[in-house]
Design a protein that fits this description.
Blueprint: E1 5-10, E2 21-26, E3 34-43, H1 46-52, E4 75-83, E5 95-99, E6 113-117, E7 121-123, H2 130-135, H3 137-147, E8 172-176, H4 181-192, E9 196-201, H5 206-211, E10 216-219, H6 225-228, E11 232-237, E12 251-259, H7 268-274, E13 277-278, H8 287-298, E14 306-311, H9 315-324, E15 330-334
Parallel strand pairs: 8-9, 8-11, 9-10, 11-12, 12-13, 14-15
Antiparallel strand pairs: 1-2, 3-4, 3-6, 3-15, 4-5, 5-7
Helix pairs in contact: 3-4
């Protein structure tokens, strides 16, 4: 294989996991402001399968045109291989991680090499390996930007007003979908900030979530959370979508509901009648925030759960695992 090519997972049409092909691809050419990263781990996220399938989950006007062959993915961990002349703060050989170009461009992370805007890049926490670092960026930044700091002033595509995190210390927080990628980080962040956290997931995740700091646990297969929970300050619905309004009745006046997946979320009139806020936002790449949260990963204040690991060549199997659902933490691809 020549120096100008690499192995990557590409697709030449939209479809199911079967369209993912392990093949030779051109190695990225650096542009100004970019860093070339030799990838060691790739974290999988829902936008990967949404894009693989043709973005059918999005309104037509939101579907960006794409060119085939297409390389999926945003989340990486690896080592700096090359640096554009105008980039400072990184050196050849540095261990780094990133959520690449999301949501404004193509990350093309399922590959041996990825070009990354320096503003999206951060030094990998020394206390975790590449698998755990690759698993963190999108899910952790989502939880962070919802709960702690948006970190940008870009217009909110999901609502006319900016999203505003709420104080967490001493508050009661319910996290729905608590065992998943965003959910297990939201549990830990809320607990770290001094909240009393109730985690909602299936029963097999109870010990896992209590170990992450959950004060209480509800098995949604046995009870309906919105029937038994009342007067909480904040609901983080890591599933979101059209069913999120069911959590409005769990909130006290002045409380807030944060649906992580904001498309299709409703309940505006009921929320106003109940005196609660419904707010969502779009996660955005931020190397500065990854540097910040990296300190919490480094000292294990926040831990990354790994559901399963596959070689890059088996990306199809990784997407099949994702389609099964009930993921605990994150799925990761390793790149040798």
């Amino acid at each position: 294989m020549s120096e100008k090519t690499m192995k990557a997972i590409r697709q030449h049409a939209f479809g199911g996991p079967e369209v993912l092909q392990y093949e030779d691809a051109p190695r990225p050419t650096l542009q100004a402001g970019e860093v070339l990263v030799r990838v060691h781990g790739v974290g999988l996220n829902p936008p990967d399968w949404y894009l693989r399938d043709g973005l059918k989950i999005l309104p037509p006007e939101w579907r960006q045109p794409v060119q085939f062959p297409l390389i999926l993915g945003t989340d990486i961990s690896g080592r700096v291989a090359e640096i554009a002349p105008d980039v400072q703060g990184f050196a050849i050989g540095d261990e780094v991680y990133s959520m690449v170009r999301f949501p404004t461009g193509m990350g093309e992370a399922y590959a041996e090499y990825v070009s990354v805007p320096a503003s999206d890049l951060a030094h990998k926490p020394a206390g975790i390996d590449h698998i755990h670092a690759a698993a963190a960026p999108m899910s952790l930044l989502t939880a962070w930007q919802f709960l702690i700091d948006e970190g940008h002033d870009a217009p909110n595509p999901l609502q006319p007003t900016p999203h505003a995190p709420v104080p967490l210390e001493g508050k009661t927080v319910l996290v729905n979908g608590a065992a998943g990628g965003v959910g297990h980080f939201a549990v830990q962040i809320a607990k770290w900030k001094g909240a009393h956290v109730t985690a909602v997931a299936s029963g097999r995740h109870e010990a896992f979530l209590r170990d992450l700091g959950a004060d209480a646990f509800l098995d949604y297969t046995q009870v309906t959370p919105e029937d038994v929970v009342h007067d909480v300050d904040l609901v983080v619905d890591a599933i979101g979508g059209p069913t999120t309004a069911r959590f409005l009745r769990t909130l006290k006046r002045g409380g807030a509901l944060f649906p992580i997946f904001g498309l299709g979320a409703s309940g505006g009139d009921e929320a106003e009648q109940r005196g609660v806020t419904v707010s969502t936002t779009q996660v955005r790449a931020s190397g500065a925030q990854l540097e910040e949260v990296g300190r919490l990963l480094d000292d294990a204040t926040i831990r990354v759960a790994i559901d399963s690991v596959f070689p890059l060549a088996d990306a199809r199997k990784a997407h099949e695992r994702a389609a099964e659902g009930h993921i605990r933490g994150k799925i990761v691809l390793t790149v040798d």
